Every structure is written in C-alpha cells, then in structure tokens.
C-alpha cells in the first residue's frame, strides 16, 4: 500500500497515466496531474481538490519540468514520487520518419521524462526525501517494431529503448540519495494510443501474447504504483514488462482462438513433427 505521498503523474488525462492518478488518489495520496489539456484532465479526474492539482503543460517544453516541480511543492509542500506516462506514439516507418519527426518524438518521450524527473528529484534531494521515479518503456523494444503495420515506428521504438537505458543511468546516479528509478513496460494495451488499431492489428496483438489478449490500462498502472511503493524497496534500474507474455518468441506455445487446449494440441503436433524430422534424419545417417 502506497499512501499519504505527493506524486507528479504526467500523461494523467488518459489511459495508463489516468489509471495511475486514480489509483494513487484512491489510496490517499496527493497528485499533481499533467497533460497538455486542462479540459481533458478535468474530464479524466474531475475538478481540483486539496489532493488533486492539474497542470496543463507539454512535457516536450523544457520549462515543464521545473514548472511541475514548483506547482507540486506549492500545492503539497513536498514531492515523494514521479510517474512519467506522457508519450507520443507514431507508426511512421523509416521511409517517412524525418529527422524532425524523430526529434519530436524523442523530445516528448525521453527528454520530457528526464526533465520532469530531474526537477522533482532535485527537490527530494534538497529535503532529504527518499522516494522513487517510474518511467514508461514498451514491449516494442523487444520486437524491434519497425512501424508501418500498426505498431510503433523507429522514433517511438528508439524513445522507449532510450527510457529503458535512462532508468539504469539515473538509478545508478540517484541510488546514493535513496531514490529508486524503474520503468514499467506495457505490451499492447487498450487506450487512446491503440484506439485506431484495425481488427487485424488487435487480433495480432492479442495472439502475440501468451495470455491471448491485449492489456488493460489498470494493469501497468498497478505495477507503476507498486514500483513507487516500499513493497519494491530493493528494486531499482529495472524495466518490468507488463505484457501478457509477448516476449517468448519462438518457444511460445501458439495460442488457439481463446483456447489453451488448442495451444497445447498445437505444441504437441509441433513436437511430433520435430521428432519425426529428427527420426528421419537419424535414419538417413544410418542408411548412408
Ligand atoms: N497503449 C499501449 O499499447 C502502450 C504500449 C506500450 C507502452 N505504452 C506507453 O504507455 C504510456 C501511456 O500511454 P497510453 O496507452 O495510456 O496512451 P494515451 O491514452 O494516449 O495517453 C497518453 C497521455 O500522455 C499525454 N501526453 C501525450 N503527449 C504529451 C506531451 N507532449 N505533454 C504532456 N502530456 C502528453 C496525453 O494527454 P494530452 O493529450 O491531454 O496531452 C495522455 O494523457 C506511454 O508512455 C506509452 O508510450 C503504451
């Protein structure tokens, strides 16, 4: 249980960030919620209260980090944690991803997470507060998603790879202050980011996971809040994948349409086929 803490949550107007903010508020924390639109923040979380403050700001703007830290300190007097969920998605493949587009995605997804976290952690170090930072990676770094077919392109994939390494560097640097830094790395999850997926893309995403479905935004959100809490007191520098088993690759039992048994049958058939090939090869050896 994580409670009575002050946390900055970026990307709080939608999807996983909204679920993080809701969960933190429900557990008795104070939240500074950040997104580019105050209206969307109000729609997602309601009007400001003593425990909820809203900040409309673009994390790609280098002024947003210091502004968010100052707003949280003014409202709550301290910062104990940060959850960076704000990110831009792009499916553009390498042929149409210009340098400008690449920079636009990296500024929001990597630089934004860095600058917000840095400004917050400076206030924590000044006050001797031992807390935690969570950033957001992605399963796309495991698949090397090339874009163009529904999934993130090179700019998005590079940004999430950047985050995954950034948490290691910052965990290393901030460990001496008792500040932990981790990433939660969702697989394909129901949210505004995936709302335009075609039926085929949704089916491919579901079938690509051992658990045979897309994730729900509350699932990575629970992991992010756990990473902030003392329950994760010895976890730092890690990327925790919340993806229903997207990364089993060639060893994955192929899922049938919603049926474990079908997946089991498919793997038995595959094993029989492989054994028969081995037997044929051995017979071939003994014949020669
Ligand atoms: N959904 C997936 O399948 C999936 C998979 C892997 C990783 N992720 C990651 O999970 C995180 C949350 O994504 P989601 O699925 O919840 O997407 P989402 O529903 O589209 O939410 C994205 C949030 O980020 C905010 N945002 C975007 N750009 C911003 C900027 N420049 N400045 C400030 N706020 C900004 C958006 O708010 P405004 O539009 O109001 O600014 C919104 O609140 C992201 O880091 C994403 O890369 C998602």
SSE blueprint:
Elements: E1 6-10, H1 15-26, E2 30-35, H2 38-45, E3 52-56, H3 64-76, E4 81-84, H4 99-127, E5 132-136, H5 140-143, H6 154-174, E6 180-186, H7 199-208, H8 218-228, E7 239-242, H9 260-287
Parallel strand pairs: 1-2, 1-4, 2-3, 4-5, 5-6, 6-7
The protein binds NADP nicotinamide-adenine-dinucleotide phosphate (NAP).
Q: How would you characterize this protein structure?
A:
This protein has 288 residues and is α/β, with parallel strands linked by helices. It has nine helices and seven strands; from the N terminus they run E-H-E-H-E-H-E-H-E-H-H-E-H-H-E-H. It folds into two domains: 245 residues, NAD(P)-binding Rossmann-like Domain (Rossmann fold, 3-Layer(aba) Sandwich), CATH 3.40.50; 36 residues, no CATH class. The protein has a seven-stranded parallel beta sheet, sandwiched between helices. Helix 2 links the parallel strand 2 and strand 3. Helix 1 packs across helix 8. The longest helix is centred in the middle third of the chain and has 29 residues. The protein starts with 5 loop residues before the first strand and ends with a helix. The C terminus is likely disordered. It binds NADP nicotinamide-adenine-dinucleotide phosphate. NADP nicotinamide-adenine-dinucleotide phosphate binds next to helix 1. The site of NADP nicotinamide-adenine-dinucleotide phosphate (NAP) has 32 residues, from helix 1.
């Amino acid at each position: 249980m994580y409670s009575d803490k002050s946390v900055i949550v970026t990307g709080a107007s939608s999807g996983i960030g909204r679920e993080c903010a809701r969960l933190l508020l429900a557990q008795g924390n104070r939240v500074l919620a950040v997104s580019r639109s105050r209206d969307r923040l109000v729609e997602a979380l309601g009007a400001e209260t003593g425990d909820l403050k809203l900040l409309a700001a673009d994390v790609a703007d280098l002024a947003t980090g210091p502004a968010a830290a100052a707003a949280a300190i003014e409202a709550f007097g301290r910062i104990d944690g940060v959850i960076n969920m704000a990110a831009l998605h792009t499916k553009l493949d390498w042929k149409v991803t210009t340098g400008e587009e690449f920079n636009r995605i990296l500024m929001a997804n990597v630089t934004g997470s860095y600058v917000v976290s840095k400004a917050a952690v400076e206030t924590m170090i000044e006050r001797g507060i031992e807390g935690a930072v969570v950033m957001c990676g992605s399963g796309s770094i495991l698949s090397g998603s090339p874009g163009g077919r529904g999934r993130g392109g090179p700019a998005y994939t590079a940004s999430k790879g950047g985050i995954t390494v950034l948490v290691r560097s910052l965990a290393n640097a901030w460990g001496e202050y008792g500040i932990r830094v981790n990433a939660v790395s969702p697989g394909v999850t129901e949210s505004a980011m995936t709302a335009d997926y075609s039926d085929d893309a949704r089916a491919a995403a579901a079938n690509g996971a051992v658990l045979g479905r897309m994730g729900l935004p509350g699932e990575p959100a629970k992991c992010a809040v756990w990473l902030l809490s003392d329950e994760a007191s010895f976890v730092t520098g890690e990327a925790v994948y919340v993806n229903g088993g997207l990364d089993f690759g060639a060893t994955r039992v192929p899922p049938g349409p919603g049926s474990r048994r079908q997946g089991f049958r498919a793997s038995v058939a595959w094993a029989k086929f492989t054994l028969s090939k081995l037997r044929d090869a051995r017979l071939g050896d003994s014949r020669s």
